[in-house]
Write a structure and sequence with these properties.
By secondary structure, the protein is an alpha/beta fold. Helices cover 46% and strands 15% of the residues. A hairpin with a 6-residue loop joins strand 3 (79-83) and strand 4. The longest helix is centred in the last third of the chain and has 17 residues, at 254-270. It is globular and about 70 Å long.
Length: 327
Amino acid sequence: MSAQAEFAALKRHLQSVIVGQEALLDKLMVAVLTGGHVLLEGPPGLAKTTAVKALAEGIHSSFQRIQFTPDLMPGDVVGSEVLDQDSGALKFVHGPIFHDIVLADEINRAPPKVQSALLEAMAEKQVTAGGQTRTLPEMFLVLATQNPLEQNGTYPLPEAQLDRFMLHIMLDYPSPEEELEILRRDRQRHFGEDHASLNTSLTPEQVMQARHQVSEQYVSEQIEAYMVQLVTATRRLAELDGDMAEVLQVGASPRASLALLHASCAWAWLNGRDFVTPDDVQQMLPDVLRHRIILSFTAHANGWDAEQIIQRIIELVQIPVLDESRD
């Protein structure tokens, strides 16, 4: 079975567990294919945790959930040195972050020092503790969740931490039809009538091979320039539209351009193409940018939100004309 067929089977597995949320499932596979970390934001009860668990199960990878709380310490995440009573020497006990897929549940409930402990891991796939640097698993991936509704006892993620996430996915409530299907599936599980089984043989080794394929996607010079123009537009909105001169305090960094490149390549690969199109770029842009731009007071006062600004940028930046011989 080809790598793309294996990922199609993974998608079917996720759909057998999660009702609706197609955008979430697609973007989770983009994250797996790129090794890019993801921040999932939505009200409670939208199957964020269930989706991540199903993803790890479908890849047959090691998985660990870390429940972030205000009393969590950095050592509870990355590990720490403890005294071996038999030998009298210090030995390092690996923390829960040493897994292929790590679910950082309610990440904004952890204090800043714990969030900072994740920066090195997310950026360099390594942790330093006890004066020694230790490498994380090759497939290491952080999928974090946060609840936008509850603010008591939370610590807003700093910009440096947000920038480490390749994608920021916003979830919404299911449709009435989807919610009805959720009820029916729950009753089937309650009465033992749910016979869904794992039907994917995807492994971490195959994921790494697929990542190599994604890295070889063809990206034309026009598409590269288009990506850069979209990202740099967040820093020069006044040049593109005088009415938007003061809607952003901070634009996106070059890391956004890199994230857009990797995500667009993965999206094209998932759709059976070996080259990237403007549609691929536009599809991934909102999830790449929404957590990397900071709106000004003027924007809030005039009713602008991040989604509207990103869509306006897509309208303002000219779409490149590609060489049709690639189609």
